[in-house]
Amino acid sequence: MEPSFTVNLEALLNPQMTAEPTELACHVTNITHLPLGGRLGVTWGHTTLPGLVGGPQTSNSIGSLDGKGNLLPGAIYSDRLKSGVMSLTRVHPDTFKLRFLRTQEIDMGQYVCTVSAWSVSSQGDVMNTAQAESAPLVVRWDTKRPTLNVVAKRLREASVGGATFEMSCAVATENLGEAGYSVLHGGATDPNRRDSLVLTKAGPAEFRFRLVGVQLSDRGFYWCVITAWTKQQPGQAWTRATSAESNKVKIDFQENGPSFSVAIQSDTTSVYPWETAKMECSLSVSGSSPKTSAHTDDLAYEVRWFFTRLRGGQTTTQVASVDRFGVVRKDNRNSSSDISIERKDTHTYLLNIHGTQDSDSGEYHCVATPWYLSASTGSWTQAGELTSSRIFLTVKFAVWDSLKLPLLYGVAASIGVGLFSLVFGLVCAHCCCRNTMHTPRSRNKLMDLELD
């Protein structure tokens, strides 16, 4: 007697969109008269839905498992079965399965499984002794167009030049299934600053964009364009599914730059001639420039010193200067004293007047021009000129020091002249006014006359 059985087909996994898995089970029930050693085989068939792929309805053999379990793939499905993206298996002696890892739109349609009973004849040959076919099972879903929704948001706001800006783009999908994403960021960034850009993947569907050390040229709008890519089957090339553009995020800040101030001071405002006078010009910086406050190499000053002879006078003369590269220049002065400029630190400059003279008395002030490396432009920027208050330097006139030598010389000269006069008088008196003995006149008049 021939074997008898019933075949039922059911969907264990029914896809709701493209790229989802599909799993069909073919159950053989009510098996009777299957001889000892008899086996069951299965053949799977597929019929396309009318007009689904733009052509006539067609039927194709997916593949079969014979009584010994050998796989015989159909011509159209051979590559997919060999690659493993589809499989035909026997999970029980009376149950067979058809599985798609990623179902394509062309896989929609009617499926049937035809089960055959194989028996061994008395001559030892395996023969197909009976077969039964299941009722068709339709596999289909609504083919909605895949969509992307990309939302951009600011994570770190750059409110000043030199700060770091960071934003993220998150992707939400519909009717897409498993996909890969590529991202393109748009904005006003200078192509020469690509080394300052960082693009990372923060999650399966989230990307982050970071711009380090924003500059004025970076101000503008930023957004991302994300493209979804799918593979119909593993091992195949990526296929573009759809793309979407996010909302725009703005970088906008005002560059005010750092603020500077200058002050002048001196330990003493009066010195004696030939002493050294020292005046200190001190600068301070404040404001919103991160580079200026953090690195002294990004800040320099040009300092000039001026002299006014009269207190409150308007006529000033430049006496010395140092540029932002540290080069000192001395100006011609109407004084025999010498001048030097000393840089004590980044913000302090010292004017030294060596061997002061009376002509050095007067008002002094300094004028400073700051230069800083702007975090917003990346270039050296000249700030406004700063003028300090004035201090008056007095070179004292030392009366005793100025008179002691003339007095000493006068006294010495007077004493010398006095001594010379005394000695000279004594010498003259000794030579011209010496006392002589009186000789009485001789009574011999004739002799006296001769003598006279």
UniProtKB/TrEMBL annotation:
Entry annotated with the keyword Signal: yes
Statement: the UniProt record of this protein carries the keyword Cell membrane: no
SMART domains: IG
Domain of life where this protein originates: Eukaryota
Coiled coil (residue ranges): none
Gene3D superfamilies to which the protein is assigned, alphabetical: Immunoglobulins
UniProt-listed InterPro entries: Ig-like_dom, Ig-like_dom_sf, Ig-like_fold, Ig_sub, IgSF_V-set/TM_domain
Transmembrane segments: 407-433
Start and end residues of each Ig-like domain: 258-387
Keywords: Disulfide bond, Immunoglobulin domain, Membrane, Signal, Transmembrane, Transmembrane helix
GO-annotated cellular components: membrane
Protein name: Ig-like domain-containing protein
